[in-house]
Amino acid sequence: MMINVGIVGVGTYVPEQIETAADLVAQTGIPEAVLRDKMGIRQRHVAGEQDTISYMASRASARALEDAGVPAEQVNLVISHGSEYKDHLVWNAASKIQHNIGAINAQAFEVYALCAGAPIALQTARGIMLGDESVRYALLTAASRENDLVNLRNERVRFMYNFGAGAGALLLERGATRNLLLGVSVITDGALSETVTLNRTPQALGTNPGEFGDLRGRLDVNQPDFMAERLGAVSLQNFVRVIRESVEKGSARLEDLRFLGITHMKGSFYREILSAVGLTPEQSVYLEDYGHIQSADQAFTLELGLKQGKIKPGDLIVLAGAGVGYTWSAAAIRWG
User: What DSSP letter does each residue of 64-128 carry, written as one string?
Assistant: First the structure.
């Protein structure tokens, strides 16, 4: 008998502090219209001192459990797929999140694939749930405040100026009868594996000492020309490939797709991807009021898509992302 795994709860969290495009003009030297209209940054949330990775992920997780009506004690698995810039280095954030939310009967560990992490975490959890009938509920959660690690005067990292802070969570159920996970596709281009790293060069650090607790350095691009050329050649086709393959693994067709929840990026490329898979902006959510919150983006797009009425019962939807390294991923879900 086929056992299904489905999403039964969604939750998000954002810090209270907001930076608008106008606020970022002085920090970036970029005109407000460019930040807003071309880079897609209408506003973003900025973490406060209390907004650690474990705190934000715990808040989003509690909301996902509340959305599902499932007590934390019934959760059997907690997977954190959020930022490696977290409370401590060489540390399992998932165990802290498990403790915070009271999931006392859950195993807890991390899966890390940067901004491609959400579909990969979905696939990981589904594999465990299908192989172990004792795992009925799995909580997937991700938080990020990597905007701390970006020098807004370093032009090499302009594509990271959209980074925001926040967290998202999804609750999965083994034996679910709704919102079923159909298929996941992931591909990696290892030629880009070292294009983005933490550096301590003057351009990367700017006027900031680049010291964040135990962490030293800020994000920088090591091979900007190669990275731009390579991504220009493969990124669109790789996004389309993983979206198409995730749908086909669920015995559906790309033509059946009705909604795409995807990583925040500049508006022109976002619209190009939508067009390439046969969708319009009305069949997606653009996160211009949140920015890019690493692998929490997919939870935000799902929650917003439902609130805005863009996802309807029976719709075939895909959650997709891409992370430096470079990995593209997508998960197909039959909603309702």
Answer: HHHHHT--GGG--EEEE-S-SSSSSSS--HHHHHHHHHT-TT-EEEE---GGGHHHHHHHHHHHH
Residue limits of CATH 3.40.47.10 in the chain: 5-178, 182-334
Per-residue pLDDT tens digits for 64-118:
999 999 999 999 999 999 999 999 999 999 999 999 999 999 999 999 999 999 9
Please give the CATH topology (third level) of the domain spanning 182-334. Peroxisomal Thiolase; Chain A, domain 1 (3.40.47)
**Cβ pair 34, 22 in contact under 8 A:** no
Radius of gyration of the chain (CA): 19
pLDDT in tens, 145-177: 999 999 999 999 999 999 999 999 999 999 999
- CA-nearest of 176, 171, 10 to 79 is 171
- What class is the 5-178 domain? alpha beta
